[in-house]
């Protein structure tokens, strides 16, 4: 028989994509490709993935080690998933083995122990035994051998052992322990699905029909743009039902935070035990069990967060991404994949249909739909015909003029007081992070921005300076407003804690609860707080972004956005988009049930296009203005952003490395004549310069979309030479 070699992908940081190993077993190629295997790298035993079988090796044949053992009974990766992994490697510049490893849940990673088997104890004369004992470097093995056990664990294979193997004194075998044991706790009898009794309304019917047709044809991508409460979920449910009717499977991705029990119950009620749920709160054992249920075809619908995009469904019909604009779809660990892109690619490979749903699509997605890359389905009306809640903007400059220096406007205070009296609940909302270091004029609302990057300058109190965290531009804090000459120019600072404190002082009898990353670090704290609100044991909930998403509180009739400016002035090119999404989302929270809702947005920039559009619930208008700015300043979708981060304990080293790298980048772009296609911003400190005793600097590249593929490998190589550096292509957040 001709010799065969396996190309095995290993999850090791650098090195080559695959390594060659000899195939000794007589197994067909089809049963090998996509299979997990145990191999030696150096003298380490590792789990790897066979991605190809060839009849030639890339190094000298006699240097090639054999595949030590095959895992599982059959390939764990389909050809389609292998293709997806190859694509991820190119797209995200990660090792092939890392792409494959991230497709498996943590439990499906083997712990491998190599064992020596003494073929015939009686024949093992003392001399041989001591040879073996000497060759074994660990005590466990020695002890076992001394006790004359037949099977002995071994860590390293020495030449002595190799000789004994050739002489037939010993042989090897492997014990493979999956890291988890499964308790098959899933109770299939407990749940049963039911056919929908919901009659879709006209706008839903149109969307469902279009998607179903695409699922039949096995091709298509959609953006389902529907206002909050327009009934997107029912569209997903009916499209999935159709896919199942024709024998296909579906994956539904939702942001982790909205993967609530209600959400899961909705799918389980419809599809019963065909549903597999996938989220980070599952234990390793549960994940492992779910994974195999899907792999074995026992579950046809997978509902989960980001990593569920890799769920091993057998016949992909469609992938739905709800709230497609959410930043949690982008992984921040290697491989730094974007689940939207992976889903699209996977649909292309497996003849699936992609449905991205949102009330506020990301600029990139809406732009792609405009270009015809995906089909736009619009649902402009709420199901029950209820109007979207009334959004009021309060001009905080007027409050200052009136002499009100509190963080609450008169209008908001009045509304909260009214709600307390009426026994209704209120939410007071501060943007996602206590990121409050921009400088603005309290008189005219002017915000100090970088003249080059159009992002807010960050205030550094120690130096009395304002600095741009993209390009490094610096100025002293002006004494008077450059526009209106008012001396009332201040840096802005109010976090959720301050709001909670002030609210308690103004309304001493109100029951106030705060919810932000500080208060929900304890397990279940998140749920406990929500339960308090749900049971109406809280009058006022103060919180961050966390409370804006996916929650449905029928008794909440007032939402106050205390400082829209903190969102508007995050030093990130997406700040206007984030603000629009935020206000739209919080508006969607108010008045979900019978009582009408009201939203009050406080700001020093009431004329800002993002707020103006949000008030009118006018996505189109926001999009038109924002896309123009993106184009003018060459931000995505008109460029690719490459963020290179450098971090370390010793600041001068980090700055030096950042400067060296920037120098190298300039040199490279010069030599390649790419100066006009790539703009290098920085190096500059990251907006949060010091986190956990590590200093962070960054270099940002705006890369013309057409040359990205030409240069990304070179840039990656440059970055890899600095141990303190890493790169991220098109990150969602620039913080
Ligand atoms: P979205 O996800 O677009 O914000 P939802 O899917 O939450 O909207 O739908 C809003 C509400 O309308 C939900 O309570 C849902 O049960 C209900 N609903 C959806 N479609 C219909 C329909 N065709 N008939 C009656 N009620 C519906
Ligand atoms: Zn001013
Ligand atoms: Zn700048």
Q: How much of the polypeptide forms β-strand, as a percent range?
A: 15-25%
Distance between the termini: 58 Å
Largest sheet: 7 strands, parallel
Shape: globular
Strands ordered across the widest β-sheet = 11-12-10-13-14-9-15
Radius of gyration: 30 Å
Bound molecules: adenosine-5'-diphosphate, zinc ion
* CATH fold title of the largest domain: Rossmann fold
Please identify the top-level CATH class of the largest domain.
Answer: Alpha Beta
User: Count of helical segments?
Assistant: 21
User: Mean pLDDT, rounded to whole units?
Assistant: 85
Query: Residue share in helices?
Result: 25-40%
Number of domains: 5
Q: What is the fourth-level CATH superfamily of the largest domain?
A: P-loop containing nucleotide triphosphate hydrolases
Number of strands: 30
What structural class do helix, strand and pairing data support? alpha/beta
Identify low-pLDDT runs.
179-191
Tell me the CATH architecture of the largest domain: 3-Layer(aba) Sandwich
Key structural traits:
735 residues, 6-stranded parallel sheet, 5 domains, Arc Repressor Mutant, subunit A, binds adenosine-5'-diphosphate, binds zinc ion, GIY-YIG endonuclease, alpha/beta, 21 helices, Rossmann fold, 7-stranded parallel sheet
């Amino acid at each position: 028989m001709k010799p065969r070699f396996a190309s095995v992908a290993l999850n090791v940081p650098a090195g080559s994509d695959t390594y060659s190993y000899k195939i000794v077993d007589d197994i067909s190629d089809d049963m090998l490709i996509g299979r997990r295997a145990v191999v030696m790298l150096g003298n380490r035993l590792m789990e790897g993935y066979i991605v190809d079988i060839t009849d030639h090796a890339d190094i000298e044949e006699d240097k090639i080690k054999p595949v030590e053992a095959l895992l599982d009974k059959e390939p764990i990766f389909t050809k389609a998933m292998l293709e997806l992994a190859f694509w991820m490697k190119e797209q995200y510049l990660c090792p092939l083995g890392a792409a494959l490893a991230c497709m498996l849940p943590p439990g499906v990673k083997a712990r491998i122990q190599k064992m020596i088997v003494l073929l015939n104890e009686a024949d093992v004369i003392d001399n041989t035994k001591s040879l073996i004992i000497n060759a074994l470097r660990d005590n466990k093995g020695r002890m076992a051998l001394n006790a004359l056990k037949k099977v002995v664990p071994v860590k390293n294979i020495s030449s002595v052992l190799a000789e004994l193997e050739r002489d037939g004194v010993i042989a090897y075998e492997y014990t493979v322990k999956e890291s988890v044991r499964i308790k098959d706790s899933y109770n299939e009898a407990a749940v049963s699905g039911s056919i929908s009794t919901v009659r879709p309304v006209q706008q839903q019917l149109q969307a469902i029909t279009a998607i179903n047709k695409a699922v039949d044809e096995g091709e298509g991508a959609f953006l389902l743009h529907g206002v909050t409460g327009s009934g997107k979920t029912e569209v997903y449910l009916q499209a999935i039902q159709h896919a199942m009717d024709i024998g296909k499977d579906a994956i539904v991705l939702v942001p982790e935070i909205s993967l609530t029990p209600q959400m899961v119950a909705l799918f389980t009620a419809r599809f019963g035990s065909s549903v597999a749920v996938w989220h980070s709160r599952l234990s390793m054992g549960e994940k492992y069990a779910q994974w195999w249920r899907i792999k074995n075809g026992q579950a046809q619908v997978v509902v989960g967060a980001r990593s569920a995009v890799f769920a091993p469904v057998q016949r992909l019909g469609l992938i739905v991404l709800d709230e497609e604009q959410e930043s949690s779809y982008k992984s921040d660990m290697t491989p730094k994949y974007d689940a939207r892109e992976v889903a699209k690619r996977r649909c292309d490979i497996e003849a699936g249909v992609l449905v991205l749903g949102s009330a506020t699509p990301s600029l990139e997605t809406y732009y792609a739909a405009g270009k015809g890359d995906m089909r736009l389905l619009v649902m402009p009306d709420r199901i029950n015909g209820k109007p979207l809640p009334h959004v009021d903007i309060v001009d905080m400059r007027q409050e200052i003029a009136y002499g009100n220096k509190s963080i609450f406007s008169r209008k908001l205070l009045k509304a909260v007081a009214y709600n307390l009296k009426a026994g209704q609940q209120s939410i007071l909302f501060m943007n996602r992070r206590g990121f409050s270091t921009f400088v603005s004029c309290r008189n005219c609302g002017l915000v100090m921005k970088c003249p080059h990057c159009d992002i807010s300058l960050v205030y550094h109190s120690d130096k009395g300076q304002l600095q741009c965290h993209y390009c490094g531009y610096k100025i002293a804090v002006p004494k008077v407003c450059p526009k209106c000459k008012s001396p009332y120019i201040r840096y802005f600072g109010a976090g959720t804690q301050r709001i909670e404190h002030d609210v308690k002082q103004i309304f001493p009898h109100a029951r106030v609860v705060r919810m932000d990353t500080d208060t929900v670090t304890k397990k279940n704290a998140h749920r406990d707080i929500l339960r308090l609100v749900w049971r109406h044991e809280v009058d006022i909930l103060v919180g961050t972004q966390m409370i804006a998403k996916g929650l449905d509180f029928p008794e909440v009739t007032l939402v106050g956005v205390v400082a829209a400016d903190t969102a508007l002035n995050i030093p990130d090119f997406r700040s206007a988009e984030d603000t629009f999404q935020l206000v739209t989302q919080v508006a969607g929270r108010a008045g979900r049930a019978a009582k009408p809702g009201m939203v009050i947005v406080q700001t020093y920039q009431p004329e800002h296009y993002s707020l103006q559009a949000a008030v009118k619930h006018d996505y189109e208008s926001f999009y038109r203005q924002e896309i123009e700015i993106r184009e003018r300043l060459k931000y995505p979708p008109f460029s690719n952003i490459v963020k290179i981060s450098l971090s370390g304990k010793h600041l001068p080293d980090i700055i030096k490395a950042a400067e060296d790298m920037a120098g190298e980048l300039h040199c490279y772009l010069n030599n390649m004549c790419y100066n006009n296609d790539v703009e290098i911003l920085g190096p500059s400190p990251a907006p949060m310069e010091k986190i956990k005793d590590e200093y962070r600097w960054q270099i940002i590249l705006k890369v013309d979309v057409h040359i990205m593929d030409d240069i990304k490998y070179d840039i990656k190589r440059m970055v890899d030479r600095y141990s303190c550096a890493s790169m991220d292509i098109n990150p969602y957040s620039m913080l």
